């Protein structure tokens, strides 16, 4: 799908605030509401828009502890790797997880209520997975660009 400047602006507006009405979006882009609606539908049909959601404030939900965890695996045994992936995708503390190049194999964004809950997450969950060799935690002090 070839995107023009109006398409890119429309996608940026939706990404920033998906609750804007079609009329607000159309006005901001400078097009009719029907043309705007058709473009959004085309984006959805083409798979450019994966979904819509709300940005929550985890600290308001009692999730004060926030960290990036760098995980190294022992080896890339297919069975252990499969169990690792299944286990981490099932844990709600893990908000994001990326397979990466470099020293660590995976980088996870983790949210917990506090440091004690995070310690339980490590001891009772992460360090019990056979594929995990080590984990390094970087505590997030401020979220500058959520």
Summarize the structure.
By secondary structure, this protein is α+β, with helices and mostly antiparallel strands. It contains 5 helices and 4 strands.
Describe the structure.
With 146 residues, this protein is of the alpha+beta class. It folds into 2 domains: 5-46, Arc Repressor Mutant, subunit A, CATH 1.10.10; 58-139, 2-Layer Sandwich (Alpha-Beta Plaits). 39% of the residues lie in helices and 21% in strands. A 4-stranded antiparallel sheet has the order 2-3-1-4. Strand 2 and strand 3 form a beta hairpin. The model has no long low-confidence stretch (mean pLDDT 95).
Break the fold down into its secondary structure elements and pairings.
Blueprint: H1 5-16, H2 22-29, H3 33-46, E1 65-73, H4 78-90, E2 94-99, E3 106-112, H5 115-124, E4 132-139
Antiparallel strand pairs: 1-3, 1-4, 2-3
Helix pairs in contact: 1-2, 2-3
**How many structural domains are formed by the residues?**
2
How many H/I helices?
5
Helix proportion: 25-40%
CATH class group of the largest domain: Alpha Beta
Number of strands: 4
Assembly form of the protein: single chain
Q: Per CATH, which architecture of the largest domain? A: 2-Layer Sandwich
Structural class: alpha+beta
Please describe the structure with a list of short key phrases separated by commas or semicolons.
146 residues, alpha+beta, Arc Repressor Mutant, subunit A, Alpha-Beta Plaits, 2 domains, four-stranded antiparallel beta sheet, 5 helices, 39% helix, elongated
């Amino acid at each position: 799908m070839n995107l023009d400047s109006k398409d890119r602006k429309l996608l940026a507006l939706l990404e920033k605030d998906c609750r804007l009405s079609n009329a607000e979006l159309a006005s901001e882009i400078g097009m009719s509401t029907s043309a705007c609606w058709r473009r959004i539908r085309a984006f959805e049909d083409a798979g450019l828009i994966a979904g819509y959601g709300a940005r929550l404030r985890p600290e308001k939900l009692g999730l004060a502890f926030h960290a990036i965890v760098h995980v190294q695996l022992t080896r890339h045994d297919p069975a252990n790797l499969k169990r690792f992936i299944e286990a981490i995708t099932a844990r709600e503390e893990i908000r994001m997880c990326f397979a990466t190049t470099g020293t660590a194999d995976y980088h996870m964004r983790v949210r917990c209520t506090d440091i004690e809950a995070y310690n339980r997450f490590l001891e009772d969950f992460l360090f019990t997975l056979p594929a995990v060799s080590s984990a390094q935690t970087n505590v997030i002090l401020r979220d500058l660009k959520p």
